[in-house]
Amino acid sequence: MVGYAEILQELHSQAGKRAGLADTIELHCELLEAQAHAQVPAGRLALSSEEAAERLQQGYPLLAPEHLVADDQALAELFDQIGHIVAERRPELAEALAGVRGWLDERRDRIGAVAAEYLREGRVREGEEAGLDAYLLTFVFINALRPFLRVQAQALTPWVDESVWYRGHCPICGGEPDVAALEQESGRRRLLCSRCDSEWAFRRVGCPFCGNDDPQQLAYYASEDQVYRLNVCEQCRRYLKTIDLRQVAGKRLLAAERVLTVAMDVAAVEAGYGVR
Ligand SMILES: [Zn+2]
Ligand SMILES: [Zn+2]
Fold first, then answer.
1. Which long-range contacts (CB under 8 A, 24 or more apart) does 264-268 make?
2. Whether residues 236 and 184 fall in one domain
3. pLDDT for residue 276 is more than 80
4. Which pTM does this prediction carry?
5. C-alpha 19: how far from chain center
6. Beta strand pairing status for 239-244 and 189-193?
7. How far is the CA of 94 from the centre of ligand 1 (A)?
8. Cα 77 from Cα 204, distance rounded (Å)
9. Residues 65 and 128 in one domain
């Protein structure tokens, strides 16, 4: 798995080249620094290789939500830091964010259980029902949980048999992809997990979110230089950002591309495609 230092370096080196992205890159670099310095316990294997193979066969990701090794205190501290960074960098979100932070603060002593619930459901239902901004909640959860999930992913990746999995969600944590890549030589598609940064192979055509593979219901919009594609699905109205590595000379880090392509998220949402 690509380390924080490499991702940071890539983002810093792109900051000058990408017009209008300086603020976004600074925000994400601060988040990455906080994640890199979080007190994360070492990942441990809660599975034998037989159990792992069986889980994958049955379609279950390797990490059961209740096995996320997260020390409540360390996780609560990272939630605080993430909230603080976003509030500093995005004053326009201050009010919505204050609601999220207050809500999290009330759940400090059971934050691990709240996190497990998010991993299981893919959303923070309790917070949404309390009227909090769903997008902001997910953003904060993803960023606070990422270092804990990355450590687990590092430990569990050797147990993943890609020929057995081939699903639209992550074989490690069950998260959804937020970036795809078409590989340099083969053009095969790989997906990047929005939560734990694992990458896995997926079929070239088809929507990873709803499984739709009707070409009439799928489309993509390519950038002028053909490097990026915005894949959209008319069945579930979701979208996926894709980088075509056959069109680029050097190496690209998908975890950095996630940040460098935020304009595609904005365009997709404006066109009526959504997160869920
Ligand atoms: Zn994952
Ligand atoms: Zn779909």
1. 264/228, 264/230, 265/241, 267/230, 268/230, 268/232, 268/239, 268/241
2. yes
3. no
4. 0.95
5. 24
6. unpaired
7. 29
8. 40
9. yes
